[in-house]
Specification:
This protein has about 525 residues and is of the alpha/beta class. The protein is built from 16 helices and 21 strands. A 7-stranded mixed beta sheet has the order 14-15-21-13-18-19-20. The protein has a 6-stranded mixed beta sheet with strand order 3-2-1-5-12-11, with helices on both faces.
Length: about 525
């Protein structure tokens, strides 16, 4: 029987590889109902060899993904579900993280440089010195992004300049570059035996090398960063058959969907119309123009404005690991509910600078408004509020850019399990916050893309229907919202202009490692659908 003619009691199945900064997972959905049937998850470690550096082992990532595939197939069999009913697999991944490998041996030529890594700060400074007025938005008309260490082009440039093995492989025409999606697609479709070297438009839009309008690698951008075209993957749409898995456990299953994790959550939330916004807790006013998705080679690309915040869920990790005043996110809800009134403490968590809409790498964390009555619970509450204020910063900026007043904010991610935080978000932003009851929206988004691709067409759930959700309604007045927000803006002003202090002793290194490994576990990313087809703001 053909895989596409499944008679399973669940109908055809679609798998989703969800490779994030801290773990890899493989989930299997029923294409008729979007129900998660089973999954497996494997943690992925990080290393911080120097101050501000964050790396991961590409082999560990690949091994974790393969373990997830094997264990999930085992789980299906235990549930008496035929793994042969899996008709397609999609990949969603941490974005901007950069891998370079040898096309002949398949070996990584260096560790993956993770999206949060700050080693390219000096390269950014050198580049900006050569640009009139040191304009960090100099390339924005082409790629939609500011010149920042955040994006892949700078990481790749550092690798080409500093790793002799990479330069040798480049000279021998054996060097390959990719974000994590490309690394996984190439290996799963055969690797050194004719593996497919490809990426999708959403991941390519985060490199600073793709033209945001043509969706092609841009010669001007490649020349600007001195990146050779031949090492780059082919750019494809987010929903099409890339190739077929060669691993024995799932041999012959097509990989037919690929989306960066934030864009995948956007699709999974059914956030598919102009003026909708979502926030995941990992422009002329400091926002980014990004490709939201392109659901097929002949389909029009859909664009979004994006605001990226460096610190969100990781602030909880910092309170837990570095200050020792909190055990987990759930405890924060219990403790903060003990405070009867607002404590007027403002906490700006700019451990590695501020991202959108400020883009200030000289910013550092500050806590303002401390009095003799301040205690650890006040600090915890201010930390939770900081997540909400950062979201409002981006929503305010989106309103300036688009003129659109948002009617609601869709949220997903681990932090959304905290009801108090969701209520704070609604109060501080002044709009309803909508939390889906099905929490696997990131994996769901790429499952939709994979199951809807030409040649598959087995995803039967309507992708524009309502998502069952909880809604949190603002409970304070607009005046109270503005007072709180004005205090936050004052604290932002006080966080600017600090120079980083580098201490090479072991204690400083251990503090950095604890911070770097936890701070960025969950980032805040807000995407606003701005246009269909090729219309850009």
């Amino acid at each position: 029987m053909n895989k596409n003619e499944s008679t399973s009691r669940y109908g055809p199945l679609v798998g989703a590889i969800d490779e994030g900064t801290s773990s890899a997972r493989f989930l299997v959905f029923a294409a008729n109902t979007a129900e998660v049937l089973t999954y497996h998850q494997v943690p992925i470690s990080q290393s911080c060899p120097k101050e501000g550096w964050v790396e991961q082992d590409p082999i560990e990532i690949l091994t974790a993904v393969r373990e997830c595939l094997h264990q999930t197939v085992f789980n299906l069999r235990q549930l008496t579900i035929d793994p042969g009913d899996i008709v397609a697999v999609g990949i969603t991944n941490q974005r901007e993280t950069t891998v370079v490998w040898d096309s002949v041996t398949g070996e990584p030529l260096y560790n993956a440089i993770v999206w949060m890594d700050m080693r390219t700060t000096s390269i950014v400074d050198d580049i900006l010195k050569k640009i009139r007025n040191q304009n960090k938005n100099y390339l924005k008309p082409l790629c939609g992004l500011p010149i920042s260490p955040y994006f892949s082009a700078l990481k790749l440039k550092w690798l080409l300049q500093n790793v002799p093995r990479i330069q040798e492989a480049l000279d021998k025409k054996r060097c390959m570059f990719g974000t994590i999606d490309s690394w996984l697609i190439w290996n799963l479709t055969g690797g050194t035996k004719f593996g497919i070297h490809a990426t999708d438009v959403t991941n390519a839009s985060r490199t600073m090398l793709m033209n945001i309008t043509t969706l092609k690698w841009d010669p001007t951008l490649l020349s600007f960063f001195d990146i050779p075209l031949e090492i780059l993957p082919e750019i494809r749409s987010s929903s099409e058959i890339y190739g077929y898995i060669q691993d024995e456990i799932m041999a012959g299953v097509p990989i037919s969907g690929c989306l960066g994790d934030q864009q995948s959550a956007l699709v999974g939330q059914m956030c598919l119309q102009k003026g909708q916004a979502k926030s995941t807790y990992d422009s002329s006013h400091g926002l980014l123009t990004t490709v939201a998705y392109q659901l097929g080679p002949q389909a029009p690309p859909i664009y979004a404005l994006e605001g990226s915040v460096a610190i969100a869920g990781g602030i909880i990790q910092w309170l837990k690991d570095n200050l020792g005043i909190l055990s987990d996110l759930k405890e924060s809800e219990t403790l903060v509910e003990q405070i009867p009134t607002d404590n007027h403490i403002a906490f700006v968590p700019a451990f590695a600078g501020l991202y959108a809409p400020y883009w200030r790498k000289d910013a550092r964390s500050v806590i303002c408004g401390i009095t003799e009555d301040t205690n650890s619970i006040h600090i915890i509450k201010a930390a939770l509020q900081a997540v909400c204020f950062q979201t409002r910063d981006i929503l305010e900026t989106m309103k300036k850019d688009t003129g659109l007043s948002l009617s609601k904010l869709l949220v997903d991610g681990a932090m959304t399990n905290n009801n108090l935080l969701m209520q704070m978000q609604a109060d501080i932003c002044g709009i309803p916050v909508v939390r889906p009851l099905m929490c696997e929206t990131t994996a769901l988004g790429v499952a939709i893309a994979a199951g809807s691709a030409d040649g598959i067409r087995k995803w039967d759930v309507k992708i524009n229907g309502p998502v069952p959700s909880d809604t949190f309604i603002p409970s304070i007045t607009e005046n109270e919202q503005d007072i709180l927000y004005s205090q936050w803006k004052k604290a932002i002003d006080r966080s600017l202009g600090w120079e980083p202090i580098i201490d090479t002793n072991d204690d400083a290194k251990s503090i950095h490692k604890a911070t770097a490994s936890g701070i960025f576990m969950i980032s805040t990313i807000i995407l606003l659908m701005i246009a269909k087809y090729h219309t850009m703001l």
